[in-house]
Amino acid sequence: xxxxxxxxxxxxxxxxxxxxxxxxxxxxxxxxxxxxxxxxxxxxxxxxxxxxxxxxxxxxxxxxxxxxxxxxxxxxxxxxxxxxxxxxxx
Length: 90
Description:
Distance between the termini: 26 Å
Strand order of the largest sheet: 4-3-2-1-5
Strand content: 15-25%
CATH architecture: 3-Layer(aba) Sandwich
Largest sheet: 5 strands, parallel
Low-confidence stretches: none
Shape: globular
Structural class: alpha/beta
Number of strands: 5
Number of domains: 1
Number of helices: 3
Order of helices and strands: EHEHEEHE
């Protein structure tokens, strides 16, 4: 089975999106997270999921300079999303 590229699009800072992203890595697909607009204030569970995503080579991008993830403009993110097989908005 071909490896899929999966994007998780986080818009409200919900920690559940990061948990779901970790779960999506179980099929050995490429999973990346895009945090849009809002600043993320990680609690302990979210911090663990963010760390786990890093350990699994998932990338986390954001368009908000207050977040400590890799910075991309909204336009860059829009272009990147066209390369994914699946985009899951959360």
